[in-house]
Write a structure and sequence with these properties.
Two copies of one chain form a homodimer. Chain A is α/β, with parallel strands linked by helices. In chain A, helix 4 crosses helix 5, helix 7 packs antiparallel against helix 8 and helix 9 crosses helix 10. The interface between A and B is large, with 99 and 98 residues.
Chain lengths: ~400, ~400
Amino acid sequence: MGDGQRKQVFDAPEYRRRMRRVKQRMYDRGIDILLVTDPANMNYLTGYDGWSFYVHQGVIVVIDREEPLWFGREQDSNGARLTTWLTQENIRPYTDDYVHSPTKHPMEFAADVITEVGVGKRYIGVEMDNCYFTGQALECLREGLPQWKFKDADLLVNWVRVIKSDAELRYMRMAARIVEKTMQAAIDAIAAGVREGDAAADVYHAQISGTADFTGDYSAIAPIMPSGIRTSTAHLTWTDRRYEPGDIVLLELAGCKNRYHAPLARTLVIGSASSALEDTARAVIEGLNTVIDFIEPEITGEEIEEKWREAVAGSAVVKMSRIGYSFGLNYPPDWGEHTISLRPGDKHLLKPGMTLHLMPGIWEKDFGFECSEPIRVTESGCEPLTNFPRKLFIK
Amino acid sequence: MGDGQRKQVFDAPEYRRRMRRVKQRMYDRGIDILLVTDPANMNYLTGYDGWSFYVHQGVIVVIDREEPLWFGREQDSNGARLTTWLTQENIRPYTDDYVHSPTKHPMEFAADVITEVGVGKRYIGVEMDNCYFTGQALECLREGLPQWKFKDADLLVNWVRVIKSDAELRYMRMAARIVEKTMQAAIDAIAAGVREGDAAADVYHAQISGTADFTGDYSAIAPIMPSGIRTSTAHLTWTDRRYEPGDIVLLELAGCKNRYHAPLARTLVIGSASSALEDTARAVIEGLNTVIDFIEPEITGEEIEEKWREAVAGSAVVKMSRIGYSFGLNYPPDWGEHTISLRPGDKHLLKPGMTLHLMPGIWEKDFGFECSEPIRVTESGCEPLTNFPRKLFIK
């Protein structure tokens, strides 16, 4: 058996372009070596794709080395060979006695690799607030690299990821086709008397079986689909309960292709909507439409939020949390990129090729409403990635 | 609408027993306040259940306070009200400007809460190597609590979780029923010409729709189901590829109920097996059966691994990584508990009520084989939680 199944999600020039952009940022910030522990950033620079992020692993970018290095658990190293563009010498596996051990830590191994490739260098950047880069990882690395100066390189790669290439957008459009089918599957499945879990099963089936042309991947957030009083809060999933007449159901779902997402939220009510829900739906959808018309390059995140606030000013809707964020390539626990947030204070200018999830979710004391849109910033405005009616669904 | 959907996964006495055990360990280690950031540990002590772990959140256990405190994002605080046994005053939401912000960090908020409830106290325990407790979280907390002494309390709660109550085992048995159905669905779906993603869709559907009596929850690890050369490594999922005659397919799946897992691995070959695969399968299954017969209370993790090594000694099978680990309640990215590992050096004594995933996965240069069993340690031996043929499946 050969490498016939070696997966080429992008061609080598795409990865090299990404590396050049990351190195420019390293250079600007005086970083000789960047330790990347965010699984999405690891994938972005190397193609590495495996559910191995429950152990410590990383990608090491050396400013004057063409290829980055991957380090991880030995049993995942064939995965690195099969999914990355790296040559064998840059795949550095550690033995299993480093895993979940009271006496050894994988960052000791990483420090050794960094010492080896970092001769004559001094400044290391680490992703300080990335989940998967633990307090222990930081301390262990500091101990193993006593001569090195540490710099916070959190989000350094994320800020390169924020503008999508045509090749990336191709996968995001595939994800958009998947989420349209998935949302329809959810709406079709939900009815009074049906178990929430059976509707969730149909959602997953649609999300993974995809279309006739391509299947889907697991999304970085599980389907969020609470009903009834549980719609009063974000991030709940489903239960064994059977839907009842009058239930509101939130549906925050995503399609995913090659780790690229298209998230989409809609709300459904079984039977008839209360006037409070109808009023909320009307205001939110009008606000969302206003924002979509407004977005163009060279405006800031806070200007968009301000426009939203003006649009809903005549209604009872008050949203205290951000109304959207940048998204794209990701792994659990989040499809957001943690860069741009549409809220007061966000001074980032939008650029063509950015992708935002416009998500003005409303969670009141006893019910919620969600209607969202994933969009791409174009040269002159913005383009919704999905085509799904923006309305309150009634069944 | 009231709290009719407030979910009672366990009764209050169960949570209070857990709190008492955690407090004894805190007392033994001289910890006044324990900051719990592991989502499974948060759930274990409070019941909190939401996909909100992509932002900083936690549970604060004060040694002389009956109830712990939950802190998290405002939009998740109704979720805390609906899923935990905590009274309102112990649910502490932070505003959205703390989320993914370049200027504010949620651990500043946590430090304020700890200062408030920790008057006269001095020693704080943090889960140093828990993913979700980032390097930045540690530094931020140290800055916000300059008078406090920090202790590493990593796995403190995990070591309480390691022995399961009857109430927990009830959910694990439900998860076992689900994974049996899920494994059968995978075997039924896989055939030459079928897209891997379509088989994965059937796996998810079975995993979530569960049985006639209960539905399932999302598992902490996505279905691991590589085929062909991709079976040479752990932790790969599926692709768009269509299965081909001769393909080996690894199936590492789980059922999940109320966050309690039952993982199970089997291997299938389409057509006929090579003699190398047959030999590996025979040795691994014999080794697994030997270990199941051997396990009883008061033996160590390393003794079990030694028994395994003896059993496979006459074969070509050499396993350099652990052959099993403790599992149970969990969230992504892992269903393992990071406590007991069955490997040389592990001196932990097994006790009745522990649950282990016996998982001697073999990943050779060009193929893999997996056959596993989730078991419970009993008073006199061990009991497999699932009932599924231990063999190489041929289709």
